[in-house]
Structure formats: structure tokens, C-alpha cells
Amino acid sequence: MTTLSEWVPPATHGLDLPDGRRLTYCLYGPDDGVPVVSSNPTPHIRWERPDVIEAYHRVGVRVLSYDRPGYGGSSRQPGRTVADAASDVAALADAQGWDRFAVTGFSGGGAPALACGVLLRGRVTRCAVVAGTAPYDAPGLDFFAGMSPDNADGFRLATRGAGDFRARTDRVAAEVLAELAAAAPDGGRLARMRAMLLDGRDGWTDDMVSLVRPWGFAVRDIAVPVGVWYSPDDRNSPPGHGEWLLAAVERAEGHRYAGGHEPGPDTADQVLRWLMA
């Protein structure tokens, strides 16, 4: 088993798009594994933790984890919508020769995964959303019910636009990195967090703004099996969001897990095996 202190950055690949942007990504798991495109949480980059990589190998999935625009080495795409993720994912899958593939998204990556399920009809086989949020304007949902004050403040600030929210990312990134450095964590974790928070501030900002604006597609139009994992104790993406998605998506299956926002390794294995079904 690879320990966190032994972690080194995996090989990074790049894809140049017709509009002049560049996307960066990493590939994990066995070469012949079931293809899966992973939409990372907000904020996050293409580098996965060792325990997550081990799960990919254990289950047998070939995962493409990419930097959304504005993160890591991916060019920023100002004003992007959630729906814009689908064309990027299609281009990344084309570059791998993947005609059919599953998609998964955790937290802020849940909405982009849903976009692929709706807009890449005929290519996406299954869509797993873990601790994802519902649309900001979801009918019948109190978006902030059960949400932590800090997370709620972030979403409210994002409604004011990228400029206001970017100031928040600068402050939060500096505070988090200072705390991590003082705690003397392992070098691998600090390297990932620095890349995520410093090189991902534009992506973080654009993610949040896109989540509180119209997504560019209707969730109810998704036509592939959807697995919705949510926790009753989650204060970042409260359970009402998962319950709303289950009610809105005809072919959705609900799965509850304990422990708050981030699921444990057993849930990760369950999600990956569900994607392979």
C-alpha cells in the first residue's frame, strides 16, 4: 500500500481544444479497466489520493480525472456554465478512444456529471453523484436548509459574481495553507493542497458561480441510470439536495452513507462497482 508520505505527482496529460483552451488530466487504474470520467469536487485538481487510486485498481476501473477550466493546468473559461462540462468530457473521452463510459462526480463535481448524463446521450452508461448539490433554483427546495453557515455564505457570495467570490478564495486558501504548514503534514498532502488552492482559485470561483446560475440543462431530462449517494449528516450538501435529485430524476437510485460530507472507502468501492454494473 502506498502511504501518503510516499505520494508523488502522477503523469499529467494535456489536450488542446479547437477553441484554443487546454485541458490537463491524469489516468488511473488498470489500462483495460471500465472507463470512467471523474468530475472532482470544488475545489480540486486531477491529483487523486493514494487510497482513492488503490480503490480504482482494486475495483478495476480506468479513471480519467481532469482539471475543470481554471484549475491546475486547464485554461480558464470565464462565464462557463455547468452544461459546458459535457463538451470538455466528450473531447477527453474521444482522445482516449472511449465511445462509451460512465461518469461520476463528488460534491461540486456532481452537477457536471449530471450534465454529461443529459447532454452526452448515447455515450454515458451510468452517472453517480456523491454529495452533490441540487440546482440553486430547484423548485420546492430550501437550498440552505441544514447547510453550514460558512458554506451558505459562500454560495450567497457567488450569486454576486466572480469578482466578489475570488476575494474569498484568496483569503481561504491562505488560511488553510498556513494551518496545514503549521501542522507539519506529510509532503504529499501539502503539495496537493497547494496545487488545489493556489493553482485552482479561478476554477473554484467559476465553479461556484456556475452552480448558483442556470445550469444550461434540465436535470429531469437525464435518461441513464443515476446513483445518488448522500449523507443525513452532511452540512456542505445537506440531505435535502440528494432527496430532491432522487425525486427529480426518474431513473435515480438512492444510497445513504454515514459520516458527513465525505464518504469512507467502503462507499467509494460501492460507487465504483455500481458504475460497472
TrEMBL record:
<dbReference type="GO" id="GO:0016787">
    <property type="term" value="F:hydrolase activity"/>
</dbReference>
<dbReference type="InterPro" id="IPR000073">
    <property type="entry name" value="AB_hydrolase_1"/>
</dbReference>
<feature type="domain" description="AB hydrolase-1">
    <location>
        <begin position="55"/>
        <end position="270"/>
    </location>
</feature>
<dbReference type="Pfam" id="PF12697">
    <property type="entry name" value="Abhydrolase_6"/>
</dbReference>
<dbReference type="InterPro" id="IPR050471">
    <property type="entry name" value="AB_hydrolase"/>
</dbReference>
<protein>
    <submittedName>
        <fullName>Alpha/beta hydrolase</fullName>
    </submittedName>
</protein>
<keyword id="KW-0378">Hydrolase</keyword>
<dbReference type="InterPro" id="IPR029058">
    <property type="entry name" value="AB_hydrolase_fold"/>
</dbReference>
